[in-house]
Amino acid sequence: MSTIHNFGAGPGILPKTVFEQASQAVLNFNNSGLSLLEMSHRSKDFVAVVDNSVALVKELLNVPEGYSVLFLQGGASTQFMQVPYNLMKQGGKAAYLKTGVWASKAEKEARLFGETVVVASSEDKNYNYIPKEYAIPADVDYFHCTSNNTIYGTQMKSYPNSPVTVVCDMSSDIFSKPVDVSKFGLIYCGAQKNMGPAGVTMVIVKDEILGKTARALPSMMDYTVHIKENSLFNTPPVFAIYVSMLTLEWVKAQGGVVEMAKRNQAKAELLYTEIDRNPLFTCPVANEDRSEMNAIFLLTDESKEEAWNTLCKEAGLHGLKGHRSVGGYRASMYNALPIESVEVLVETMREFERRNA
Length: 357
Ligand SMILES: *Cc1c(COP(=O)(O)O)cnc(C)c1O
Known about the structure:
By secondary structure, the protein is α/β, with parallel strands linked by helices. It is built from nine helices and 14 strands. The two termini are 32 Å apart.
């Protein structure tokens, strides 16, 4: 089988060594003679997996005291609801920065619980930039933003000074670079972009912001219940947590998020430089807001689409098709994607230029 370069947006690429370790754990976990998939989530071995995963998250992101790390289910989409459920006061308000599909879905869910204020939106230009000049009202329960807009290829490079708790959906760039957790009240992510497989959602929450809404919460929706039970209130997604732990161990062994940031910058620079140089491609995203995780590019001549697709296929380039709401192409360059894959993509773009000269 020839090499496949996986640029898929999610579930995304994970390190090969992680796949190998994960398959071993399915066959015989920790030399127990049991598969990870057939053992109690309350066994000593699995509780150690949860504890180690929490410790790795705290270490890699330098999470300050007073924060809890949770492994939940339901994807980032459930957080769209669980966040207002836990943080919006009765008759309360929350502010949202509307930077794409995911941000809009989050805002829509919050409307089930109270009033929302959209402080700014980039919908006027099909979300190809991050709004910068806006004010966050002081009378809202929290401000919600999306760090990396997976579909539109934009990424927040800084965060606003906020008079209220900041909540951030970091699904597609968590662990891609250092982040100052102390600036956030709550961070959440579906694991399947840059942290692990589908099926687990990670939440980092500042304990003191919880329990202030006077709203009765179903247990499964209540962060405080999951904190108290160390993410073992009910049966957790054992395999997804384990594979996330392996991925975080890999990140740590590579040099942590500082090293990830270096590699991700190098990959992104290589690709965007070629997109900007090559007359057959263009990038619709505002320069300063371009995502290091998901690079969007379009063909300048759409009639060449089939020829480009064929060339990509021959080169083993996989998962480049753009999201249906943007069209064109999207190269997702998550942590586990080696720079060699980006080099192959860039070389293929140059070959395409030569053939069309
Ligand atoms: C993929 C994605 C989501 C949706 O995640 P699910 O786990 O499928 O619910 C939400 N936000 C962002 C930024 C994403 O990239």
